[in-house]
């Protein structure tokens, strides 16, 4: 019966000594500071809890480790250490739910979901509760909140994490505007990427991305970036920018998709081979070279971050044929840098080489 009475008692003011709820339940122990012992009164009477996080966005890459800085202090400073509770979570974004990352009390901590085994608190210095995330994944980018809880007082700070990457448009082998939103998510994942966010597409537009075909974004809107307004792309009278069709039905409507791939831990290279290859032969040739056939996202990342520059068209894992150009030159396509595409040729044709990927 005592357990049944606990929940309503939590709502009563002055019910000290009971577990405190702040997204998680915590049980009091003999070592916990009791809210009735005067410490909370001190905090409420002129002592302020302050949480500090960086204002600037942190940039890193897939597979790396990163530290999300978070420190706290009291104003004015207190003479003795206090037992606090720490909670990190990832904020909801583009329709994705909030994700609990880690909670900690003293040396005890618990991590959640996909973060298990990959996160821990630094706690190397007093009042340092920075979060380290190892083996970063594509879906780890976003906004994280660091919350420090002292009795009935809590303060928090925000840390924004971005992965260095490249946005690229992707079209189905069946042609233009063949993908609903869920199929767009799937093809991006198959190419070592995720569906791009609006912020990532906007940044790519600022860097010069110009593409006339509309594509899905992470929030299920459909947009396209235009640097040079022209008749087939909304007309020459409109200003440059990211054009939007707004939200679309995730299952019924069909467009292309904009994918986002991050910098690589491995290496993409054009395989020097005495003969041109079919798609099957291309896969086997990479395997014989202790590598795998490269994905589209990996080729774009190698072009963007490693300066891969080849005028040789090669097979990729999705059955497309492409080649990356950093320094345009005669007989190598248009005068702008980019990843050129030959589309999806007959897999049996022996007209192309292959791009392979070898992980470090």
Explain what this protein looks like in three dimensions.
Helices cover 15% and strands 32% of the residues. It is an alpha+beta fold and 360 residues long. 31% of the residues are buried. The radius of gyration is 26 Å and the shape is elongated. It has a six-stranded mixed beta sheet with strand order 4-13-12-7-8-9. Strands 14, 15, 16, 17, 18 and 19 form a six-stranded mixed beta sheet that branches. Strands 20, 21, 22, 23, 24 and 25 form a six-stranded mixed beta sheet that branches.
Keywords:
single chain, 360 residues, alpha+beta, 6-stranded mixed sheet, secreted, hyaluronic acid binding, hyaluronic acid, immunoglobulin domain
Termini separation: 60 Å
Read across the widest sheet, the strand sequence of neighbours is: 4-13-12-7-8-9
Could you give a short account of the major beta sheet? 6 strands, mixed
Gyration radius, rounded: 26 Å
Give the low-pLDDT segments. 1-42
DSSP summary: helix tally: 6
Strand content: 25-35%
Broad structural category: alpha+beta
Q: Could you tell me the mean pLDDT? A: 86
User: Considering DSSP H and I runs of 4 or more, what fraction of the residues is helical?
Assistant: 10-25%
Shape: elongated
Number of strands: 25
Keywords: Disulfide bond, Extracellular matrix, Hyaluronic acid, Immunoglobulin domain, Repeat, Secreted, Signal
Organism: Piliocolobus tephrosceles (Ugandan red Colobus)
Protein name: Hyaluronan and proteoglycan link protein 3
GO molecular function: hyaluronic acid binding
């Amino acid at each position: 019966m005592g357990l049944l009475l606990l929940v309503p008692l939590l709502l009563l003011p002055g019910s000290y000594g009971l577990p405190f709820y702040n997204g998680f339940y915590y049980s009091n122990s003999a070592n916990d500071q009791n809210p009735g012992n005067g410490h909370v009164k001190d905090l409420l009477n002129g002592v302020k809890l302050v949480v500090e996080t960086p204002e600037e966005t942190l940039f890193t890459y897939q597979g790396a480790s990163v530290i999300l800085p978070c420190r706290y202090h009291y104003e004015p400073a207190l003479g003795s250490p206090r037992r606090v509770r720490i909670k990190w979570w990832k904020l909801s974004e583009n329709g994705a739910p909030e994700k609990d990352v880690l909670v900690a009390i003293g040396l005890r901590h618990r991590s959640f979901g996909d973060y298990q085994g990959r996160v821990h608190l630094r706690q190397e210095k007093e009042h340092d509760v920075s979060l380290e995330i190892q083996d970063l994944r594509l879906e780890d980018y976003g906004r994280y909140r660091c919350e420090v809880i002292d009795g009935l007082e809590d303060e928090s700070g925000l840390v924004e994490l971005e992965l260095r990457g490249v946005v690229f448009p992707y079209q189905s082998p069946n042609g233009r505007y063949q993908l609903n939103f869920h199929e767009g998510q799937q093809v991006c994942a198959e190419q070592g990427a995720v569906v791009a966010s609006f912020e990532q597409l906007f940044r790519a537009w600022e860097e010069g991305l110009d593409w006339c075909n509309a594509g899905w974004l992470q929030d299920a809107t459909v947009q396209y970036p235009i640097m040079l307004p022209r008749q087939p792309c909304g007309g020459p009278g409109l200003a440059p920018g990211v054009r939007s069709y707004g939200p679309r039905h995730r299952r019924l409507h069909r467009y292309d998709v904009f994918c986002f791939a991050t910098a690589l831990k491995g290496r993409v290279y054009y395989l020097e081979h005495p003969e041109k290859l079919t798609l099957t032969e291309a896969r086997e040739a990479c395997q014989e070279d202790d590598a795998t056939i490269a994905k589209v996202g990996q080729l774009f990342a190698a072009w963007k971050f490693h300066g891969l520059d080849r005028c040789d068209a090669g097979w990729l894992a999705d059955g497309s044929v492409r080649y990356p150009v950093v320094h345009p030159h005669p007989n190598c396509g248009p005068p702008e840098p980019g990843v050129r595409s030959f589309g999806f040729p007959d897999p049996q044709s022996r007209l192309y080489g292959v791009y392979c990927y070898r992980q470090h």
